[in-house]
Write a structure and sequence with these properties.
The strands form three sheets. Strands 1, 2, 3, 4, 12, 13, 14 and 15 form an eight-stranded antiparallel β-sheet that branches. Strands 7-6-5-11 form a four-stranded antiparallel β-sheet, with no helix packed on it. A three-stranded antiparallel β-sheet has the order 8-9-10, with no helix packed on it. It has one domain: Umud Fragment, subunit A. With 245 residues, it is mainly beta. The protein is globular and about 70 Å long. The termini are far apart.
């Protein structure tokens, strides 16, 4: 029996619609790609990193949906974030802008920064200094920044940067995290607008989008989009498929 010829243009449109539907389903309920446009999470995440964020990690809210459509009341299938998770969330002051920071405070915690050292529930979080991180100053000149490994109360370790321990946000008041909210900070402690600032504040549970899982691509951004011949040299191959801790 001869094979029947495909439906031509109509079949192509149907195939495209199915592909778009599958992509939207994966993006909404499984994994969503994000890119890093600023340096607030250096050294964990660099400008030009592209990563997958797990939408399954904390369940789903309206902010899991495209355009934050109000189709999900509250949060369903919820799982509590762990201290140390790197999360994407909607900025509480506008519910539209995506931010990425590290969760350091859980509901009921007290958080304070004293002389650059994070305190959780009154106890100083341990940190140990390692080799300096090579960065750039505000004028684009090479500069070494002090780098530490911070160990949270649950044993999770991650690197942080500190320009100094006596800058304006290195000494704060005591923040008490309300129920259903979280306190997040950037790993680049002196260059991060995070829960220490009124613009961000405490993060409501419903504003969580997902947990950052893996870097799938990274570029030094030394080439424009149209400069195809520069894409390969600009790729940071050592960061490809790195897990995010």
């Amino acid at each position: 029996m001869a094979a029947r010829k495909s439906g031509g243009f109509g079949e192509m449109i149907r195939t495209i619609l199915i592909a778009v539907g599958i992509a939207l389903f994966i993006r909404t309920f499984a994994y969503e790609p994000f890119n890093i446009p600023s340096g607030s999470m250096i050294p964990t995440l660099l400008v030009g990193d592209y990563l997958f964020v797990s939408k399954m990690s904390y369940g789903y809210s309206r902010h899991s949906l495209p355009l934050s459509l109000p189709l999900i009341p509250g949060r369903i299938l919820f799982s509590e974030p762990e201290r140390g998770d790197v999360v994407v969330f909607k900025l509480p002051t506008d519910n539209k802008t995506d931010y990425i920071k590290r969760i350091v405070g859980l509901p009921g915690d007290t958080i304070q920064v004293r002389d650059g050292i994070l305190h959780i529930n009154g106890d100083a979080v341990a940190r140990r200094q390692i080799e300096n991180f090579r960065d750039e100053d505000r004028y684009g000149r090479p500069a070494d920044v002090k780098q530490y490994i911070e160990t949270l109360p649950n044993g999770r370790e991650h690197p942080i940067l500190e320009i100094g321990d006596d800058l304006p946000n290195d000494n704060t008041g005591v923040y008490r995290v309300p129920e259903g909210h979280y306190f997040a900070m950037g790993d680049n402690r002196d260059n991060s607008v995070d829960s220490r600032f009124a613009k961000v504040g405490f993060i409501p549970r419903d504003n969580l989008v997902g947990r950052a899982e893996v870097i799938f691509y990274s570029t030094s951004a030394t080439s424009d989009v149209w400069e195809v011949w520069k894409w390969l040299p600009a790729t940071r191959f050592g960061r490809l498929l790195d897990g995010i801790v």
